Amino acid sequence: MTQNATDTDARPASAGRRTAARVIGGAIAAAAIGVASFGSISSAATGEDINASMTIIAPAAAGGGWDGVARELQQAQKANGLVNNVQVVNMPGAGGTIALGNVSALDGHPGNMLVGGTGLLAATIQFDSAATLDDVTPLAVIVEEYDVIVVPADSPYETLDDLVAPWREDPKSIPWTGGGSFDQLVVTDLALAAGIDPVDTTYISSDGGGEAIQALLNGTAKAATGGYPDNIDQIEAGRLRALALVAEEPIDGIEIPTAAEQGYDISLTNWRMLAAPAGLSDDDVDGLTQLVLDSVATPEWQDAIERYRWTERVITGDELDTFLEDEEQRIRNLYEEMGL
């Protein structure tokens, strides 16, 4: 059940109908990238006016989900004059924990924001990283993405019950795949809901959503879970059959029944958040939080939500603290069930 902790959003897909917004060490090479980037960030952070200069740190390579969030925020801030000079720095490695460690060393410097989310929180637990979200200042959750459970279009499994029945009878008979550590967490959650020991489940790690889809189509895996944006084109093209959407409730514009509707109480979402260094004044935290809120209210950001098929969900303040505490315990429990 070993899996690399990575964030694996697809690049923007064509726009679709949306639900209403709900507001409410790694490898030496990776470490070297992190250290090099840290120097430039630290220098940039000496300017204290967040509206004059901002560095948005994506804890992964260009092209992934965290990078997409960072660059869309950069565009929204530049286009609307929210920040005069905003740059994106990519700092990959160890599921995002290298970037987290570097940002945790920037105490008192408000000119930086770190993109993170479910995958980063999971990586701090999986890798038992020295730096955790307690070492930075969470500002806001801004979007979330739902996983979808899929099988090949010619699969004999037409419903989630059809898939779970043989899986429950012989867990090894249904090899699963997915595009990242988050997807493995979803499979684990489903196994528990179905009364299956996650340790007995076969999970084939794939390097991204595209590779996971290929494993499914070539027969290496019989079922997969992955981000809705990663899979919707294959579903609409008739190559994959969607059995369930992993969401708390049905989503307007997504004609896929939820797992909960089918009797499986799973709703773990792949959310994205922004954090700042620790040691900031209340005024700095308020200013950064307002900058995030102003950014996600722009037409440019709303357009990005459509293109990436994200769902807007904004959580700040005390509600954010509670949310993160609950998610950490939930993910920690899932890893324990995996035997990790």
From TrEMBL:
Segments forming a coiled coil: none
- Family, as annotated: Belongs to the UPF0065 (bug) family.
Query: What is the protein named?
Result: Tricarboxylic transport membrane protein
